[in-house]
Structures are given as C-alpha cells and as structure tokens.
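Fig. S4 source data, part A: sequence.
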Amino acid sequence: MNQLVILKGHRKDSSESFFQLSGIKKLIVFFFLLLIVAPSLVWSKEAVPVAEDPEVEKRMLAITMDLRCLVCQNESIADSRADFSNDMRREIREQIKANKNDQEIIQFLVDRYGDFVLYNPPMKPTTLFLWFGPVILFIVGFGSLIVYLRRRREQIEEVSLSEAQLKKAEALLNENKGKNV
C-alpha cells in the first residue's frame, strides 16, 4: 500500500523502490536476503524417496530395528538419519527385492561389519566380554570396595586420652554449657 505524502506543494511516494535506495541500504537488503537464502542452499539435502513397495519397507524396518548404526552407535539403523544408515537401508531393500530371507540379509551385514552391528550379538568366544564384562566389572569393583573398607577400619586407631586430657576436655564442655544456658 503506497501512501502519498503531500508536503508544501510536491508529492512524494513514501515507499521507495529497491533501485532508489542508497548504496548502504542496498547492501543491507542484499545481506538480509543472503541470510535468508544461503542456509537453504548449503544445508539442503536430496529428499529421501518414498517407499516404492510398502511390504518391502515394512520388512526393511523390521530388520533394521535390531541392527546398530555404526556411525551413531546408540541408534538403530531404522532410527538413524546418518548417511551410513541410509546406505544400509538401501542395501537391505535391494537384498529384499533379490528375494533373500531375513537371516541371509543379517548374515551379509555381520560378515561385512562384524557382530558389533547386532544389538544382541551371539554368544561366542569373541563376544564373551560383551556378555559377561559388565558383571565381571561390577564384581571386581564391589570386591575392591569391601577390601578398601576393611583395611581402612583396621587402620583406624583408638586414641585413649590421659587423665589430665579428659579433665581438661570436661572442663571445656562444662564451660561451654554455662555460656549457652
């Protein structure tokens, strides 16, 4: 909405066009436009394609819920948005389309990335520490605490006071009782 301002006989349009702005104002406008447009150019990624086949997608999600993202390590492949997880989901979709069963797909990933890709690795000699390590560490820590507390108790000496020290302490206590009353 352009407003016309009439001052002493001459008309002035209160809204200036971009081309009528001074050099500093043009620079400021250009800077703000750059701030608005630049993030979308820098951080935009290609959209993830929508599932072509809902059955393949459902099966892929079921498989990836039990697989660990090797980049995030605290997320499943199904939940992770890392590029690595996107690649693994794509690979799993391709294997599903190649009519491989779930065990064959999981075995392919284990062969390629090791047992660490599984949230529940199988019990075998290379994974024994994963299964029993926390329990062993707890037992060792608890045992160390008990040994430390017993040694500390033995180090504490009972200090007996002489008769003169006992009388002096009693006199100080009685003196303080008299002041507090």
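Fig. S4 source data, part B ends here. The beta strands are 4-7, 10-13.
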